[in-house]
Amino acid sequence: ISAFIATMHEAALTLAADLAERSGENALSRRWLELAERANESRKKYLWVGDEATGYFRNVYDPVKKEGDDSCFICSLAGDWAMAAGGREPRLRQDMLHQALKSIRRKNMFENGMTDQSARAEQTSAFMQYPVAYFGAAALFFGLSDLAWDFLTLQDRIVTKAPSSRYNQVLTYEADGTPQGLPYYMTAPVTWLFLDRLSGVVPDLDRQRLQIGSDWLFRSEAVRVPVVLSSSWFMLECVRDRNGIRLEFIPVKTVRPFRVKELVVRWPDGASGKTVSMDGIEVEPREEPGGRFVIPTDFDPGKERLRLECLL
To answer: What pTM did the predictor assign?
Structure first.
């Protein structure tokens, strides 16, 4: 059982079940969700090492031979991030997600570089770009924004050393940050996936739903975040003070219509998600699992301005 394959296997089953449900294939959807639950249980049983304070997902394990590789593979949460990016809740408890992310940072990343795996005598070279999504974006989405920015600072320092730049990067980097391999590679665009996680945006054009909200978005100072969807471009402007949170959607450009009938917001801890006004009119959101509040709306974020206020 590979840590990477295990997390992606669970994500593939989960997202396939979602697609099947949308297509009316309910029996298939139920079956795939059952398999995804089993995959999650075996993943925790065979791959999780240590206690809640120091634990992590080991790289690989053979339950027949009872042999494994206890190094900490950096992309062991890639599927959890993929599920969240697809609008589905990961099955791992939040404390386990947080601990796994902290362990990856501690075991895989050094002062001037990182390695794909740790706890080995040799340090394998790293693909610096991919963890922007499956580590940095995951940390941001799951509420560890400081950890996410800490990694992005390290990553940016490495990929801006010659001959690399933010627009053209070599294939891999040694643990001390020394570039090696192909003199160029096509991985810089993965940073756009991190941009999505700043706002916590998850569009669902089929169901006319738009989800937003991240740990970073609702910090105390005012922030403005660009959101670039295939249908709409807009800015999210968020201001938080002692009274509450003011959130404004500012249209920039529309590519094709996207009527949002349900706005799903993940308010931060301490916010009264049930006390919300929209353009000055009080509305009553519906609470969903995962700390999400569903607000009935009818607007196109690429064309129309919308302002929300939530009490603290």
So the answer is: 0.90
SS3 68: strand
Distance, in Å, from the CA atom of 1 to the CA atom of 21, rounded to the nearest integer, reads 28
Residue 156: how many CB atoms within 10 A of its CB? 13
Helical segments of 114-190, H only:
131, 138-141, 145-159
Rounded Cα–Cα distance for residues 198 and 70 (Å): 32
Mean pLDDT of the chain: 90
Contact at 8 Å (CB) between 86 and 18? Answer: yes
CA dihedral 139, 142, 145, 149 (to 10 degrees): 20
Examine the pLDDT at 183 and tell me if it is beyond 90: no
Both tokens assigned to 115 = 């390695």
The torsion angles phi and psi of 14, rounded to 5 degrees, stand at: -65, -45
Query: What SS3 class is residue 312?
Result: coil
Q: Please give the pLDDT value at position 121.
A: 58
Strand extents, DSSP E, 20-166: 48-49, 56-62, 67-72
Distance CA 114, CA 3 (A): 18
**Where does residue 45 rank: exposed (0-12), middle (13-18), buried (19+ CB within 10 A)?**
exposed
CA distance 128 to 240: 34
Q: Average pLDDT of 122-144?
A: 85
Is residue 53 packed enough to be buried (19+ CB in 10 Å), middle (13-18) or exposed (0-12)?
A: exposed
The pair of structure tokens assigned to 101 is: 């992310």
Q: How far apart are CA 95 and CA 52, in angstroms?
A: 8
List the beta bridge partners of residue 24: none
Radius of gyration of the chain (CA): 21
Which parts of the chain are beta strand (E)? Answer: 48-49, 56-62, 67-72, 172-173, 179-180, 202-204, 209-212, 223-228, 232-240, 244-254, 260-265, 276-278, 281-283, 286-288, 292-299, 306-311
